[in-house]
# Entry
Amino acid sequence: MAAAIAGVSPAPLRLFFALWPTPAQQDTMAAVASQMQRQCGGRRVATPLLHLTLAFLGETAPERVTELTRLAAAIEFTPFSLTLTRAGVWSRSGIGWLAPADIPAPLQTLVDQLNAALGQAGFPLEHRRFKPHVTVLRKALRVPAAPLAVEMSWPVAGFALLQSTLGRGGPAYRVLAAWPGQP
Ligand code: ATP
Ligand code: MG
# Structure
């Protein structure tokens, strides 16, 4: 991180909490994405970037990262398995996604704890209901003509705090910390 210059605020960091798949799990997701792209057009999200967002913080002062890591460390995390069984396209946003049929209780508990802790610490909260999904396509042109077969079991061992840097070639993400251990 750059050294602070007196009187100048350090640049904010674009942050979010997410579930981060292993490279093998990302490959499985990417295979479904290719199948979707053939039907729906659009641009695939690069395989190493595939993830599931839990809470988006947006532009955050760098000095608040310690607070975020403290509140995340206090969360009681129960490992769970997420079964992705649905694939589709939201026609308004052109986003192609993979999603579970329902939300496992430990996932909902994780998101509820995160939101409660973030709210208490004064971070702005997302008011829309949590809709867990992995974005696999952007700018999709069509919704799938036929349902896509997806049956992917994703054992989730933890969650992570990510920094996103938006660039011309697309975003780059960096894991700042992960709980309960390494993702
Ligand atoms: P790009 O914005 O260049 O298309 P991206 O959306 O992957 O790339 P970010 O905008 O930094 O990168 O978003 C990081 C994660 O947070 C993504 O999963 C994104 O879908 C999610 N996200 C971004 N903005 C919001 C928002 N306003 N509300 C909820 N989630 C968001
Ligand atoms: Mg974005």
The chain has a mean pLDDT of 93. The chain has one domain: 13-176. The domain at 13-176 is CATH 3.90.1140.10 (Cyclic Phosphodiesterase; Chain: A,).
